[in-house]
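Project outcomes to date are best conveyed with an example. Our students and postdoctoral researchers have been running inverse folding experiments weekly, and each run begins with a structure described purely in tokens. The record below, which covers 301 residues, was selected by the lab manager from last quarter's runs and is presented without edits.
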């Protein structure tokens, strides 16, 4: 008589061998991944070529900047370009940096403050005509910035602020984009948190400052980066609002680097351009995690 077969899960019996599972990365998938990586690296190198040329040209003499064929390694290395840009002549790059840091720094603080308060009001407060007012405010974004330069010029001239850094700072502390971005961030937060805080006796300012504002720190960091870069790279507004060289910001100040013949000195301009990129890189490296988190959160929403 044949003995009965034991079940697979019977005690005392060795477990069956695991089934052969296909590997996660087959050779074809690995090859495709390698090819994709190489293509992306090649594209990245193409985009980095202008920056590499700018860095190389900042260490060349003027006669060597536009030489053909292009020499990527300067010979001789002209360190004097940076010396002349930063300490030679009047005004220097240090003065332009100070002006840009003043305008961009205080502009970021003002933009974050007004955008946070306006965004919270449009997202979490209830008042008559809230949505209509927001749509009207949002509609002002369709007006090109170039159309506002002449009215702003006349307005600040009447106020006596023409040819001052305040003519650059004041318009930058109110932005439609910042208000819209922060409002969307506030709408993505749970409304129950604010209701619970109000039940516990918290005022509206306490709800805004202690409950909702910490939840949107990545969005505020992303807005700060965007606002700083936009203000730092702005060329048109200083060109219209400023006439004194000592008040120039970095983009406008780069046009002041001329050679002995009165023409634009390519070596000095490239040295100034390399110096101008450094603050933007530092700001992005410090806040890149918050910037990426804000973009990812927006995409998930």
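After processing, the design step wrote out the following sequence:
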């Amino acid at each position: 008589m044949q003995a009965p077969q034991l079940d697979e899960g019977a005690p005392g019996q060795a477990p069956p061998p695991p089934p052969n599972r296909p590997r996660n990365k087959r050779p074809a998938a690995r090859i495709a991944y390698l090819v994709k990586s190489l293509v992306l690296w090649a594209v990245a190198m193409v985009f980095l070529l202008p920056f590499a040329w700018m860095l190389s040209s900042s260490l060349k003499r003027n006669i060597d900047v536009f030489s053909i064929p292009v020499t990527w390694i300067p010979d001789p290395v002209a360190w004097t370009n940076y010396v002349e840009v930063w300490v030679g002549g009047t005004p220097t790059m240090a003065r332009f940096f100070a002006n840009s840091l003043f305008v961009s720094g205080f502009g970021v603080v003002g933009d974050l403050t007004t955008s946070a308060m306006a965004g919270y009001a449009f997202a979490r407060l209830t008042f008559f005509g809230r949505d209509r007012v927001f749509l009207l405010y949002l509609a002002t974004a369709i007006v090109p910035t170039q159309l506002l330069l002449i009215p702003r010029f006349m307005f600040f001239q009447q106020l006596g602020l023409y040819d001052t850094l305040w003519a650059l700072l004041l318009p930058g502390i109110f932005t439609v984009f910042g208000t819209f971005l922060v409002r969307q961030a506030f709408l993505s937060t749970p409304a129950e948190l604010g209701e619970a805080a109000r039940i516990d006796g918290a005022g509206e300012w306490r709800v805004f400052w202690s409950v909702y504002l910490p939840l949107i720190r990545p969005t505020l960091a992303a807005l700060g980066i965007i606002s700083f870069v936009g203000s730092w790279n702005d060329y048109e507004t200083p060109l219209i609002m400023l006439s004194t060289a000592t008040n120039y910001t970095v983009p406008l100040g780069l046009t002041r680097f001329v050679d002995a013949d009165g023409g634009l000195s390519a070596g000095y301009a490239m040295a100034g351009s390399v110096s101008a990129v450094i603050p933007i890189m530092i700001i992005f490296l410090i806040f890149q995690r918050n910037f990426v988190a804000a973009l990812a959160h927006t995409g998930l929403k």
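The chain has a mean pLDDT of 83. The CA atoms of residues 52 and 72 lie 8 Å apart. The training component of this project remains on track.
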